[in-house]
Design a protein that fits this description.
Rossmann fold; 12 helices; homodimer; 4-stranded parallel sheet; DNA-binding
DNA sequence: TTGAAAGCGCTAACAG
DNA sequence: CTGTTAGCGCTTTCAA
């Protein structure tokens, strides 16, 4: 099957390519008759505009780049889903790239996307990203960018985030309201903002409810893995046999905690209550089911794309871009690993 | 920051764009001196070739399309991961699209990708896809396509698949070898090839081990969901109180089965053994842990991309393309929901 | 060793 | 209402 171009249509119809181009786009200055002729021939020849030529002319590709720290991850795959759905709806394609939580590859991916003349970038900072030169540089080049989930306050651009402090506050408060008095917290590594914020939220909830903060109740799960939860639970019980609640930074950790408690025949939630974070798929199928915080990845992906889209249009129309920080609200999902209020 | 083009470099250096272009690509017919001059200016000006122009000239975008039935799914996100990694390594981008298991959107996505002049397509058929005109059409247009996972034998193109029959055979045989004599099978809906093949494998294993096939032992889980497994287990026990093994079509179903059995205080694996399919993440954290079949999505994604890449190159070089069907091997992952051999 | 020129396919300002 | 023309930025042939 040979290529059908404007030129071919023009020549077989004995008109100019300009006429054909305009006719197909319903320009008002083309007669109905010509439009009909052109369109019907275009259809019968199965004409498809060459997107490269269009991009070259219009300097836009209708494609954005999405950089994900880790694709195989329930929360992030929900984000991918949200982004792609929002983008598809607006006629955009999404190129997905993985930074693997590495600073180096994050830099490289951004570089690649810029070279590709992408219309905009959606990025979640890798845990290991320490400086932001690479990002500031692309902002200077007027490439629209929106940060989602893992962000940095020192970057001046639009962002979509979860209020981790508030979410952690709510999780902890929920435990308190169901009667817990001595609540351990398994947090992630020291650096990432999300772990810090969740820790702060935990602390604040205790304070507001007049429970003295005890730093020996805070444990670090380096990988926030199932094993971390499983192993730390032993230590927690050793250190504090009278513990009655655990707020874990992720559902995975919480599941490890839960498994270990069951093995030790400690009743959940009667003796120890557990609340996780993320509302992963698996929290619905543990036994008992896991109370958690819903972290709406799909919505976040949608919002992030829509924000980016707005900026792309603003820049295209030469309007001033006003950056926006959008906060997605989270909520406690009560299940059976906590007592009822 | 203004755009740096070949023209700009050429004019500031007082040479032609042709020379600049060639110098940057190390053409042998350019003097070392000019090359040095050109290259150093290009670097200091931070020159990036315009990818639209390159694509237009070369008729290739170094971008492929990946159509996934469902992004938020452990197996498929592994596939995405594999594809993206393999593609990145070869300098390709991956546009990800979701068909949502709908025939209509599958058709539309393919259409969009073709219009985008993508270099090739990776596709897993949606469950609802009934005819293959849309796919045969793109094959006729010489757009390289590789089918992965859910395929159809009546489409003539390269494919990457798992031998579901063999895998299901192995799963069932494993149950038999660990002493099971009366094995139920929870299969998926009637149409998709994968469910059919898994059913066939199940049946064959029984036959080869002289266990008469009993069709009342085959149950259908319409959605292959946790709930399906949970609910069907009641029925299975009612119908066949002496059941001693269950081969579930997915780990999710198996987890439902497992939970229900535990609730009924039926010992796993002593009284009833369970084997799932896919080696989802969750199979490692149920209690008891779930024996299953490893379905290597990552590897599948890699292989699928590499196959596509080969075809892209063959077509580019005008070579004849020989389609290839690649079978990824699976294996039984023994865990604690089955007895030891 | 270098450059002029054509052209990939499309769009849009302008002229007729 | 239609066509001419120029050009987006790059590559490559051919001539100098």
């Amino acid at each position: 099957m040979l290529k059908v171009t404007l030129k071919k249509i023009a020549s077989t119809l004995g008109v100019s390519t300009a006429t054909v181009s305009k006719a197909l786009k319903d320009y008002p200055d083309i007669s109905e008759k010509t439009k009909r002729k052109v369109k019907s021939l275009a259809v019968s020849l199965n004409y498809k505009p060459n997107s490269f030529a269009q991009s070259l002319r219009n300097q836009e590709s209708k494609t954005i780049g999405l950089i994900i720290p880790e694709i195989v991850h329930h929360f992030f795959s929900n984000i991918i889903n949200g982004v792609i759905n929002a983008a598809t709806r607006k006629g955009y394609f999404v190129i997905v790239l993985q930074s693997d939580e590495s600073y180096e590859s994050e830099k490289k991916q951004i570089q690649l996307l810029i070279e590709k003349n992408i219309d905009g970038i959606l990025l979640s900072l890798s845990d290991k990203t320490v400086d932001y030169k690479h990002i500031k540089q692309i902002i200077n080049q007027d490439v629209p960018i929106v940060l989602y989930d893992k962000i940095s306050k020192s970057i001046n651009c639009s962002k979509v985030i979860i209020d981790d402090k508030k979410a952690a506050f709510n999780a902890t408060e929920y435990l308190i309201k169901t009667g817990c008095k001595k609540i351990a917290h398994i947090r992630g590594p020291l650096k990432p903002q999300t772990t810090i914020d969740r820790f702060i939220g935990y602390k604040k909830a205790l304070e507001e409810h007049n429970i003295p903060f005890d730093k020996t109740l805070v444990y670090i799960g380096e990988n926030l893995s199932y094993e971390d939860g499983y192993n730390l639970m032993d230590q927690i019980i050793d250190d504090h046999p009278d513990i009655d609640g655990v707020f874990a930074s992720t559902d995975l950790v919480a599941t490890g905690v839960l498994t270990r408690l069951k093995e030790k025949n400690i009743d959940i939630p009667e003796k120890v209550s557990i609340i996780g974070f993320s509302n992963w798929f698996l929290s619905k199928i543990t036994s008992p089911t896991l109370s958690t915080i819903d972290q709406p990845g799909y919505e976040m992906g949608m919002k992030a794309f829509n924000l980016l889209h707005k900026e792309i249009n603003q820049i295209k129309q030469g309007m001033p871009v006003n950056h926006e920080v959008m906060e997605i609200s989270t909520k406690v999902i009560p299940r059976n690993s906590t007592k009822s209020i």
